[in-house]
């Protein structure tokens, strides 16, 4: 089907505009709707609507009678579209989408991971980190178990959606996008992952917040020493070393680092052994990028300002790009079964977190933050931390960054387990 906007610069303008406007509304308008439906959902869905919902005869009747159609024909956007033929606002395919996948995705992954500080997180959170790792294990193990329940009601390739969502639930949106790129998910699978992610978020976040009221019985059940709770409540995360003010050269440093890692990964990934359907050249590229980003986090590159902010801007642009490429017709009945599996899956994750808290004698506050660091990433962990204990907000961010570090490895493993169960 024809599209109204086909220019690469036009497509980028629309995608950046959509991503920007919803963060503007969230920050400046403080609309309550964003407490339930985060900007990510709109950033994915709006481009998907623009590329899937055709404008047809009703538009032509209105535009011809009002003179709008003549104006647009003279201006150019509709010059190649015959009168009476439907069209979408955005195309399903474009060179822009390929560029964002080949360059944008690995670039944001490198500069996102160079901020990870695993040592500081373990030092401050102590055994709470083990609860988070147990939660991540619950995501990995829960993926094939929940997929097994519904696989006969889903298309054969849906195992990729489980792997993609595992990336989000172990790390964050960046991991979700990276795993989707590595697995080369179809147009429908990423949409399912986004849909399942947000459907569970609406239920799971309130549960994590409400868990604060269960602190006393929870601590009695797992026999936590009251003195340890006092120590936790008094903890202060060590402040990061203050970075110098952002300057033009910092962006040049980040561009150089990011492009160099992409260059190296592109050269090495074709040389790595292929074990289909998961361990392909695309998967190796993401794993190599992940490893290089983590290695750089131990170098002075970690102190370059604005790396996290720049990375997250590209992440959301990539999500908007995935929405524009999506085929909404593939959601239909698959969506209901997938969401059902997601609720079973999150219950397994929760059980692993509780088991970790019981084994390692970790309080309810750290347990809730650990789960939020997995399922919600850096966007949700501080919300849960602030509600339980404001002093733990910096710690929650560090923990979420550790999720970024392990997210790709765990998600690809979960995808492999699901692929073994695929009926296709």
Structure description:
The protein is mainly α. It folds into two domains: 2-92, no CATH class; 97-421, no CATH class. The protein has helices at 8-29, 33-36, 39-52, 57-66, 68-75, 95-113, 118-125, 128-150, 159-170, 173-183, 189-210, 215-222, 226-234, 248-268, 281-296, 307-325, 332-360, 364-375, 381-388, 393-421; strands at 2-3, 87-88. The two termini are 30 Å apart. The relative contact order is 0.19.
Keywords, please?
two-stranded parallel ribbon, 72% helix, 424 residues, mainly alpha, 20 helices, globular
Rg, Cα atoms, Å: 23 Å
Average pLDDT confidence is: 82
Fraction of residues in β-strands: under 5%
- The H/E string reads EHHHHHEHHHHHHHHHHHHHHH
Distance between the termini: 30 Å
**How many discrete domains?**
2
Structural class of the helix and strand makeup? mainly alpha
Q: Please give the number of β-strands.
A: 2
- Shape descriptor reads globular
Helical fraction: over 70%
Q: Report on the biggest sheet.
A: 2 strands, parallel
Low-confidence stretches: 235-239
Strand order of the largest sheet: 1-2
Question: Count of DSSP helices?
Answer: 20
Ordered list of secondary-structure elements with their pairings:
Blueprint: E1 2-3, H1 8-29, H2 33-36, H3 39-52, H4 57-66, H5 68-75, E2 87-88, H6 95-113, H7 118-125, H8 128-150, H9 159-170, H10 173-183, H11 189-210, H12 215-222, H13 226-234, H14 248-268, H15 281-296, H16 307-325, H17 332-360, H18 364-375, H19 381-388, H20 393-421
Parallel strand pairs: 1-2
Helix pairs in contact: 1-3, 1-16, 3-16, 6-10, 6-14, 6-15, 6-16, 7-20, 8-9, 8-17, 8-18, 8-20, 9-10, 9-11, 9-20, 10-15, 10-20, 11-17, 11-18, 14-15, 15-20, 17-18, 18-19, 18-20, 19-20
């Amino acid at each position: 089907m024809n599209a109204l906007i086909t220019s690469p610069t036009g497509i980028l303008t629309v995608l950046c505009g959509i991503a920007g406007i919803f963060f503007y509304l969230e920050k400046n308008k403080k609309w309550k709707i964003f407490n339930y439906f985060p900007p990510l959902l709109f950033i994915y869905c709006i481009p998907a609507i623009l590329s899937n919902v055709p404008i047809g005869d009703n538009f032509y009747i209105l535009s011809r009678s009002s003179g709008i159609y003549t104006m647009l024909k003279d201006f150019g956007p509709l010059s190649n579209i015959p009168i009476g033929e439907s069209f979408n606002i955005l195309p399903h395919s474009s060179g822009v989408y390929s560029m964002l996948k080949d360059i944008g995705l690995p670039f944001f992954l490198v500069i996102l991971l160079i901020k990870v500080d695993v040592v500081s997180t373990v030092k401050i959170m102590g055994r709470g980190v083990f609860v988070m790792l147990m939660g991540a294990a619950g995501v990995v193990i829960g993926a094939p178990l929940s997929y097994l329940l519904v696989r006969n009601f889903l298309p054969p390739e849906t195992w990729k959606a489980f792997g993609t969502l595992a990336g989000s639930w172990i790390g964050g949106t960046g991991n979700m996008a990276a795993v989707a790129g590595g697995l080369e998910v179809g147009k429908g699978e990423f949409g399912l992952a986004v849909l399942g992610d947000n459907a569970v978020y609406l239920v799971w976040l309130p549960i994590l917040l409400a868990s604060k009221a269960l602190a006393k019985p929870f601590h009695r059940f797992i026999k936590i020493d009251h003195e340890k709770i006092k120590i936790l409540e008094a903890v202060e995360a060590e402040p990061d070393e203050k970075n110098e003010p952002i300057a033009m050269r910092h962006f040049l440093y980040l561009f150089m680092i990011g492009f160099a890692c992409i260059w190296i990964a592109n050269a090495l990934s074709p040389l790595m052994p292929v074990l289909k359907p998961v361990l392909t050249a695309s998967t190796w590229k993401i794993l190599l990028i992940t490893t290089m980003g983590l290695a750089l986090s131990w170098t002075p590159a970690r102190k370059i300002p604005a790396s996290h902010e720049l990375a997250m801007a590209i992440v959301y642009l990539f999500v908007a790009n995935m929405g524009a490429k999506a085929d909404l017709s593939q959601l239909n009945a698959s969506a209901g079964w997938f969401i059902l599996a997601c609720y079973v899956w999150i219950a397994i994750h929760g059980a692993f977190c509780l088991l970790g808290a019981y084994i390692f004698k970790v309080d309810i506050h750290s347990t809730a933050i650990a789960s939020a660091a997995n399922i919600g990433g850096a966007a949700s962990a501080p919300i849960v931390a602030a509600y339980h204990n404001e002093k733990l907000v910096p710690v929650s961010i560090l923990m979420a960054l550790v999720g970024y570090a392990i997210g790709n490895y765990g998600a690809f493993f979960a995808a492999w387990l699901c692929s073994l169960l695929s009926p296709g």
